[in-house]
Amino acid sequence: MAMTIDRRTFLTGVTWAAAASMLPWEARGAVSQGTGMADGGIIINALGGLDDPNRGADGLVPELSPRVLAEAHASGLTAVNITLGYVSGADDPFEASVRDIAATDALVRQHERDVLKVLSAADIRRAKAEKKVGLIYGFQNGAMMGNDAKRVDIFADLGVRVFQLTYNPANQLGDGSMAPENRGLTPFGREVVARLNARKVMVDLSHSGEQTCLDAARTSTAPISINHTGCRAVANLPRNKTDAELRLVAERGGFVGIYFMPFLNVSGHAHAEDVVAHIDHAVNVCGEDHVGIGTDGSVTQIDDLNVYQAALAKEIAQRQAAGISAAGERPDTYPFVVDLRGPRQFQKLAQLLAAKGYSSGRIEKILGTNFLRYAQTIWGG
Fold it and tell me: How much is the pTM?
């Protein structure tokens, strides 16, 4: 279905990372007074973005402006899985995906002092050592596969390292979280998973239906991930994962990232305490070695919340008309956590987890080293 909506909008939450403005030098000062994680720890966002939501950029290619880069560095971010490629709309899925990769490669070359393209776990460690932000190329829909699983080879060679099988609706690989039939992984989906395993690409089941996730976890010869989700036992919404999904992914050595999204609370108005509650539940189900963060947002602030609010109803209506929205999206629900946003979001989360009794070692796992371990398992390096 053709769409006029900005492909970035609400997809990754990038557009609404925060509501109050903070200048880059103010952000740096705030972080330096935090927990110290920005200086010493590895922070990996298993799904997020780098852009300036105040500029209304189109598409999914990151915007590496001075402000965006300054606030990313100030946040302590080591690496982030960014969404590229086709998700929905009138574009040809394959062509749109190749275009996004090429455009992002050009940006990385232009900003090599600040960012690097992540192809292995070693590149994440190098980003930390060189004080850069690692960009992990990822997809959030398998539509660009068409009916040819060998296209996995093309995208793996282009540097795609995370492949989410479905978005909210069904596609040729399986059913998404909003597909009512919950039919699971298709035969073609199984073929694609096998090819992803062979090429050492992460198989991500965020946005998938429950049966698709369970099927993929059992089919895959490598551990799979759910890079951005919540826990359905805490908030019963389709975008959140059941304990059965969480447990199976962890038992097979995978990774689960908790997002900072409205689906963390059935009211649609999520707070920092909801993020902590979902992380805590995931740790109890999966174990502390398999849980991290995939915020579904960025660290750059929104300067004028009123301007954003005026556009939100239109954006949601377009997503609903296109059939890609999820239960819980409404014009009055911000796609971010109201009190956990901006360049200090990771430091504040660390403080909240510490207040709950989490050790510094467990916090470091959640903020980054669990994902790094998982990446090492899949990509090597």
Answer: 0.89
